[in-house]
């Protein structure tokens, strides 16, 4: 009943996201999944649309230098995702004839693609019955089936088994079920202030029927962005997207010299920044 009720709800409640449309290619799905990692949907949509208009195929992106890719990524955050997506496009072009592979092992061999992203591409791009387990899906399953407020911090094999059972009960609608339960977690069964009154599976939810116990234990605190190394990295990259800069200009970006150098050194180690003749710049390839 959980599966069927969720699928029925999804039919009328699903958001019209561009990567869900029939004309979206597997490449478009892969790009969306990488962009959506730790980033809200409303921030991703315009960047995704611009990205696909500019680089509609992996070969198009592979032929572009990394500096251009990083500039196009803009302020989407976590720029290593852009770097890895660029690297993945090269692998797809050189090893897979320019087509995103369907096989799990081939997908997981791509730079930046792990268990979740490979499963999502298999399900949403190719309609395969893949077990897709992101934070939203895990939370819905934990509440509905196990009666716990939140899943454990790390994915367990028991969760995979339970998710597989639900997927199999969806039968031919397996890929649609994956999208539906993810949407339910994103819109209704949220981590904080869930909208249980609007939930299509409320009558079958173990957590709701047991008065929603707060049994999740201490919640992890989101690291503060303001003043963090991540903020410094972002400021450095934002300036370098405008052009190369000498060391003395970099020094003006952040007052704490030790933290500034730590962020800059990390960016260089990751290949996101290069130093040439006393100036810092985005990498050209």
Please give a handful of descriptors for the protein shown.
285 residues, mainly alpha, Endonuclease III, domain 1, three-stranded antiparallel sheet, 15 helices, 3 strands, 54% helix
Strand content: under 5%
Helix content: 40-55%
CATH-derived topology of the largest domain: Endonuclease III, domain 1
Low-confidence stretches: none
Radius of gyration: 21 Å
Content-based structural category: mainly alpha
C-alpha geometry = globular
Number of E-state strands: 3
What about the largest sheet? Answer: 3 strands, antiparallel
CATH hierarchy class name of the largest domain: Mainly Alpha
State mean pLDDT (0 to 100 scale). Answer: 93
Termini separation: 52 Å
Discrete helix count? 15
Q: What is the CATH H-level superfamily of the largest domain?
A: Hypothetical protein, domain 2
Quaternary structure of the protein: single chain
Give helix and strand order, one letter per element, not per position. Answer: HHHHHHHHHHHHHEHHEE
Number of domains: 2
Q: What's the architecture of the largest domain, going by CATH?
A: Orthogonal Bundle
Tell me the strand order in the biggest sheet: 1-3-2
């Amino acid at each position: 009943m959980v599966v069927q009720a969720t699928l029925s709800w999804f039919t009328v409640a699903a958001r019209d996201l561009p990567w869900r449309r029939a004309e979206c290619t597997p490449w478009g799905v892969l790009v969306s999944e990488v962009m959506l990692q730790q980033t809200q949907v409303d921030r991703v949509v315009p960047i995704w649309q611009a990205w696909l208009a500019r680089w509609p195929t992996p070969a198009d992106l592979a032929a572009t230098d990394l500096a251009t890719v990083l500039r196009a990524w803009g302020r989407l955050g976590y720029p290593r995702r852009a770097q890895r997506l660029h690297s993945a496009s090269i692998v797809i072009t050189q090893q897979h004839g320019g087509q995103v592979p369907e096989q799990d092992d081939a997908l997981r061999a791509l730079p930046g693609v792990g268990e979740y992203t490979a499963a999502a591409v298999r399900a949403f791009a190719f309609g395969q019955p893949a077990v897709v387990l992101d934070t939203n899906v895990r939370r819905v399953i934990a509440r509905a089936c196990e009666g716990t407020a939140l899943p454990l911090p790390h994915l367990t094999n028991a969760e995979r088994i339970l998710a597989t059972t639900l997927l199999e009960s969806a039968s031919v609608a397996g890929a649609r079920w994956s999208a539906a339960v993810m949407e339910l977690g994103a819109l209704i069964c949220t981590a904080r202030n869930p909208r249980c009154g609007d939930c299509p599976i409320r009558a079958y939810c173990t957590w709701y029927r047991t008065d929603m116990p707060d049994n999740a234990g201490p919640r992890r605190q989101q690291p503060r962005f303001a003043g963090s190394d991540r903020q410094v990295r972002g400021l450095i990259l934002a300036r370098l997207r405008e052009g190369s800069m000498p060391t003395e200009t970099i020094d003006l970006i952040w007052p704490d010299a030790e933290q500034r150098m730590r962020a800059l050194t990390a960016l260089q180690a990751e290949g996101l920044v290069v130093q040439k003749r006393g100036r810092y710049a985005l990498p050209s390839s």
